[in-house]
Amino acid sequence: MTTVPQIEFANVSKRYGSASIILEGIDLRIQKGDFVTLIGPSGCGKSTVLKLIAGLTSPTQGEIKVDGMTPKNARETLSYIFQDPTLMPWRPVEQNVGLGLELEGVSKLRRQEQTAALLKLVGLEHVAKFYPRELSGGMKMRVSIARALVTCPKLLLMDEPFAALDEMSRNRLNEELLRLKAEQGWTGVFVTHSVEEAVFLSSRVIVLAPHPGRILEAFPIDLPFPRTAALRETPEFGALVAKVSRILRSTVPQ
Amino acid sequence: MNQWLKIVGSSVAVFAALLMIWQLALWIFHVPPYMLPSPLAVTSVALSRFSSLFASLMITAEESVCGLIASIIVGVLIALLFAQFRRVRQTLYPYTILLQTVPIVAVAPLILLWIGAGTMAVAFIAFVISVAPIIANTTQGLISVDENLVHLFLMHNASPSQILFKLRLPNAVPSLFVGIRIASGIAVIGAITGELYAGSSRVGVGGLGYSILYASSQLQTDYLFALVGAATVLGFTFFFLVMTLEWYFLHKWHESARAPETT
């Protein structure tokens, strides 16, 4: 029996108005449990791919299936993490995390339980009553992750979530993200500019080229899970980073 | 705390210096009291006629508060409408700017003619002059929401009313307070302007505007000064109350409401 892929793009193109083509002829299958990273120079339409999957914008051409459904119908099964923490400053941490459940009409008691469990999972139970402005950048991002995971998504879309953080926080959050994935088993689609981050997190890295945005090459990353910080120091890791970097360089005309 | 005392202290010092210059000017230039009464004369008339001064103050306060509360209610409702319906906003927004540029001095007699002199009419004038900043600021706060937060709400299939009440409205509270702060000052001006035309609906007493007119016609310049002082106190009290409310609602989360910087 073949299973339905989590995400399927069939010859998808996207343009805004009659202006330039953002994406052209994208064919993509992401299996359940995969962690796929999209990497590429600015203007290659990485973020647009995520928006298409989330149903925040529609393709000009081609078809997108998420879990066998149209993106809009599949919305309940996915969560989105933005580049900025995008927290609501007037709500304390726990109420920011509980937002998704609240909008879906989950009872207050269950909401509190699930929120508390998630805050514990990301190690933020001690700041549950704090307001976002009292937190550091890394902590805000963890709140944002907790908010995305509280609805138990099958699919997690991440649009450069750690781009604004320093390298130490970023590495730590990468490790944490993999731990959360192992525990919760969602499928991940991640967008980044960092090759190291891409290789460390992914089971597959897809390099996109710009003008028009298209898939240039896809690399399976055969490093074993679970991955720890020590992986970054192995020669295999270094070799993969070098390989992806080389392809990435070729996308930018000299 | 020490910092705060210093700020208050220097403000009081400025006030004392002004009083001294005032008194010195009287001695040096021999200004007759009907032109410029001494600070002492103003204080003593304020005390001796305190009950009528206070009565005038309360009448004006009542009219301004009614006008301001009406502005807040109507202003927020209009802003909600503007935020929900872009077409309505684009069509009607220019008229709110028009409202702001209408010379209230010219319109006040008309309003009095239509409604009839009295507390209602004066409160209405205060409302007309103070509603525009509330509409403008609240609308701005309602529509300038982080686009990604809207996306987030949409991804959880939030209804338009959930987006309005859980996202746009709380987002607009700081700007609403900016609007109220501006409106509270001009509501007092509106009420006093209204009273200048409305006269008194009660025998013997009227609001500050009415009393100012009366005192000046009688050349009671010292009482006139006391009335102007009372008007200032009223405006200041409003401002202080609004600031306190703003602090109460926003200090936990909003940057602007944090403790003042210590430079």
Summarize the structure in short.
The complex is a heterodimer of chains A (254) and B (263). Chain A is an alpha/beta fold and 254 residues long.
The number of distinct β-strands of chain B equals: 0
- SS element count, helices of chain A: 8
CATH architecture of the largest domain in chain B: Orthogonal Bundle
Write down the oligomeric state: heterodimer
What key phrases describe this protein's structure?
heterodimer, A: 254 residues, alpha/beta, Rossmann fold, 3-stranded antiparallel beta sheet, B: 263 residues, mainly alpha, MetI-like fold, 2 domains, globular
Describe this structure as you would to a colleague:
The complex is a heterodimer of chains A (254) and B (263). Chain A has a domain at 7-86 and 154-250: Rossmann fold (3-Layer(aba) Sandwich), CATH 3.40.50.300. Chain A is 34% helix and 23% strand. Chain A has helices spanning 46-54, 93-97, 99-103, 108-121, 137-149, 167-184, 195-201, 235-250; strands at 7-15, 21-30, 35-39, 61-66, 78-81, 155-159, 187-192, 204-209, 214-220. In chain A, the strands form two sheets. A six-stranded mixed beta sheet of chain A has the order 5-6-7-3-8-9, sandwiched between helices. In chain A, strands 2-1-4 form a three-stranded antiparallel beta sheet, with helices on one face. Chain A is globular. Chain B has 263 residues and is an all-alpha fold. Chain B folds into two domains: 1-31; 39-257, MetI-like (MetI-like fold, Orthogonal Bundle), CATH 1.10.3720.
